[in-house]
Amino acid sequence: MQLLLLMLLLLLPLLLLSLQLLLLLLLLLLLLLLKQLLLLLKQLKLLLLLVVLQLLLHCYCYYYYS
Fold first, then answer.
1. What is the pLDDT of residues 24-49, one digit of tens each?
2. So where does this one cross the membrane (predicted)?
3. What is the pLDDT of residues 43-60, one digit of tens each?
4. The three-state (H, E, C) secondary structure of 7-66, written as one string
5. What does pTM read for this prediction?
6. Owning domain of residue 32
């Protein structure tokens, strides 16, 4: 029993370090995911702008040539 407790006490810092590293890795992954999401939102915003400009050009040409 004492040997088991001693082993547990010796392994506890290693376990805590492993958990900290895992948490750090998860936070890094979340950061990368958010960065990609922001990039995607910027691209969608530009795409929407292009669609609106194309629609405006279409309306202008329609009224100009009719």
1. 999 999 999 999 999 999 999 999 99
2. 6-34, 46-65
3. 999 999 999 999 999 999
4. HHHHHHHHHHHHHHHHHHHHHHHHHHHHHHHHHHHHHHHHHHHHHHHHHHHHHHHHHHHC
5. 0.67
6. 19-66
CA distance 46 to 53: 10
10 in any annotated domain: no
Q: How far apart are CA 34 and CA 24, in angstroms?
A: 15
Alpha-carbon dihedral of residues 31, 33, 38, 41, nearest 10 degrees? -170
CB burial of 11-48 (b: ≥16 within 10 Å; e: otherwise) equals eeeeeeeeeeeeeeeeeeeeeeeeeeeeeeeeeeeeee
Domain assignment present for 26:
yes
**Residue 23 in domain:** yes
